[in-house]
Amino acid sequence: MAEPVIRKTLISVEEIFHEGGPVAARPLHRGVALAVIRNPFAGRYEPEIQSFMEDLKPLGLKMAKDLIRVLGGDPKRIESYGKGAIVGAAGELEHGALWHVPGGYAMREALGGSKAIVSSTKKVGGPGTRLDVPVTHINASYVRSHFDAVEVGLADAPRADEMVLGLVMTTGPRIHARVGGLKASEIKGEDGLR
Amino acid sequence: MKAKIRKIVTFLEETRREMERDVSPPVRRAAAVAVIANPCAGRFVEDLSELIDIGEELGALLSERAVAALGIPGERVESYGKAAAVGENGELEHAAALLHPKLGAPVRKALGKGAALIPSSKKRGGPGVALDIPLGHKDAAFVRSHFDGMEVRVSDAPRADEIVVAVAVTDSGRPFPRVGGLTKDQIKGEDGLR
């Protein structure tokens, strides 16, 4: 297997000041990095696909570093993350699952180690398909203020023989978080959950 | 600032391949999008000067953000465009007030030049509505290689009393232009057309 063939990339940054309530002292930033790559397994059933996970790692790392850069450059500012994949119609949901390992590895590596599982989602779809990527705290999945989601997508992708791979990072909780639960300040940081 | 901004989103798209050919250098397009409160929502307002002034502010802010996302000096921007989507309690004329009287001057200032009309589109819609920002060469509207469009959207905007305003800039035209017409090396640059 060779390195992924990239057709297109998208980086977007959302800067949120308020959502009808008080204007935040520090705006929330949510960043998205997408890469549209050729699906090397499109159009057939391929029993052995795992080697492609290794091939995706450098791309993942590049995307994670790009995200940190556009979110201010300091990995310590990143508080939550998520990942996702949209597989074009000639591919299989299982091809999207190839993104779990390299996507997660890339963000942990770029952030200098993070304890919580990277929440994720995936689907098969056509060009313009939108994906709601779930987002949770990087060190403790149960931090309620950081449960969030970011909608991602591209007008012209994925074509049938492509996959869209995505990473999401944010710099904080929901802008007016106030539904209680575990707080970021209460994280024990032992098990990645609390 | 007169504009009450809820969020700002920037997008950077880079196209590297098309039909199995490398696009070299890649085509890069950036857009900056602001979600603002519509001061005229919910009633008929005869005098739209408040929106006109907000358009001037946003012209400066959004062109600065979009050029920064593109990562090149403003003078090297080749094409541009603008668009607005008004939430359901607003009027199409509110988009016109933002886009047409005063938004262009600060955009041109950020780009050093800009003899050509800034192509624009507008619509009314709900949260997540897609804006197709038309693109044209900034110094000569007839440059055929640079007729293009860029789709952007913000999943939670515009709410009923909001307006989404976008400015897009590029570093080049379509990936493989080959439908003839005026080319950029033939620009006279006197009338903004040719």
Plain-language structure description:
Chain A is of the alpha+beta class. Chain A has a single domain (6-186), classed as 2-Layer Sandwich (60s Ribosomal Protein L30, Chain: A), CATH 3.30.1330.110. Chain A contains three helices and seven strands, in the order ββαβααββββ. Chain A has helices spanning 51-70, 93-97, 100-111; strands spanning 6-16, 28-38, 80-87, 119-124, 131-137, 148-152, 162-170. In chain A, strands 1, 2, 3, 4, 5, 6 and 7 form a seven-stranded mixed beta sheet that branches. In chain A, helix 1 packs across helix 3. The termini of chain A are far apart. Chain B is α+β, with helices and mostly antiparallel strands and 194 residues long. Chain B has one domain (5-186): 60s Ribosomal Protein L30, Chain: A. In chain B, 20% of the residues lie in helices and 34% in strands. In chain B, strands 1, 2, 3, 4, 5, 6 and 7 form a seven-stranded mixed beta sheet that branches. In chain B, strand 1 and strand 2 form a beta hairpin. The longest helix of chain B is centred in the first third of the chain and has 22 residues, at 49-70. Chain B is globular. Chain A binds chain B through residues 5-20, 130, 151, 154-155, and chain B through 5-18, 69, 128, 130, 151, 154-155.
